[in-house]
Amino acid sequence: MKKTVLIGITILLSINNLYSQKQEKIKVPRVNSSIYKTTIDSTEVSFKIAEKVALNMNMKKYHENAYSKSYKCNTGSLGIYSTAFISQPLKPAINAYIKTFDNKLDLKQNEQVYLYGFTSALAEGKKADRNYSRMMMSAYKQEMDLDYLNNSNNFITLKQIEKSEYWKRNWINMGYGMSYIAKDNPFMGSKGFAVGFFYLWEALHYIPIFGGAFFGETQQDKVAIPLIGLTSLIVWKGMIGGISSKYIKMNKDIHKSGYKVPNNLEF
Questions:
Q1: Domains in the chain and their CATH numbers?
Q2: What is the pLDDT of residue 21?
Q3: Model pTM?
């Protein structure tokens, strides 16, 4: 009889232990494009500081609600990128956790915490989004934490993209210009594809430019085909320059902001 009672108690204790260890997963927006932290200290969360960072990065506010403020930057005729600062108080009824891209944030039952961070959209893929979110979070932390700011080990040097150098290379070859933009650029996605495509696309234009005189059937064709190829190439060089202005502007704004670049970017 005693043995049966002990077994029963053991089973009940095991069930209770399993229940107490159960965790609720709390979902957060755009987890693979974001950097989030949690804190029990509400003074570490500041929409005012987040806005200061966004404005210093040459962005403008375009939307807000109780838990977020969104900012965007217009890069000209061919692009907009954006980021949002999110903060929300959490007090889970049971032990809970938030699964981020590369971490797990544990939350204790009935403990008031604050979730905060940045989520970004660069239209360059999730890795570039995460990198920009890391840049924003680092800038935010540089405003809030002097020890972090003054520790040089926390930062790296970001290559400066010069507009004049890009255009010089672009007029030589679109792929050559794009490789200058892409090299060591953590805020650009599909870099290998972009560079390869524009090397190929430029090469294809040389077929009518240099070959039109040989495979044109009439004298008019022999003149028109190279001219069409050359005109197309010039138009494309101008168009790709417009596309690349996004990366040039973003790089310039980061350097002008005065914020250091964090060492945890994905390349």
A1: 22-150 (3.30.310.80), 163-260 (no CATH)
A2: 55
A3: 0.85
